[in-house]
Amino acid sequence: MLIVSPSIAIAETELVERFLRADGPGGQHVNRTESAVELRFDVLNSPSLPDEVRARLLARSDRRLTSEGVLVIQARRFRDQARNRDDVRERLVEVIRGALVAPKKRVATKPSRASKERRLVGKQQRGKIKQTRSRDWSHE
């Protein structure tokens, strides 16, 4: 059981792990051991996720999410399989926890009259500076 929050726990049967050969350092032994871990979690069909969390996860433009709604996370940071398994599970929990909080709605605002005035005054000042530059060049 993978505990995400007090209200969300994911059963081990929902997680599909695959072990791969990792690239990187490790000497001769690296060619024989499958220390990298690929974790697949079916976001679309998971009974453990509330509907709003599922919708937020699927709405993300995450390249790790397949078109079938499966989240694929790989871990190959460490040389041994157990640490990579822990790492990939922690990363899955972080992704789901990120979707627990609803994003704040943006409140549309208008610039104040004073800020518009300051902007226009600044534009006039910059324009005058540029006008004086162009006159200097025309005399020569």
From TrEMBL:
Residues 105-140 are annotated as: Disordered. Coiled coil: none annotated. Residues 21-37 form the Prokaryotic-type class I peptide chain release factors domain. It comes from the Bacteria. It holds the Pfam family RF-1. Keywords: Hydrolase. GO terms for biological process: rescue of stalled ribosome. Its EC number is 3.1.1.29. InterPro entries: Pep_chain_release_fac_I, Pep_chain_release_fac_I_sf. NCBIfam families: PRK09256.1. PANTHER family: PEPTIDYL-TRNA HYDROLASE ARFB. Belongs to the prokaryotic/mitochondrial release factor family. This is Aminoacyl-tRNA hydrolase. It comes from Dyella tabacisoli. The lineage of its organism: Bacteria, Pseudomonadati, Pseudomonadota, Gammaproteobacteria, Lysobacterales.
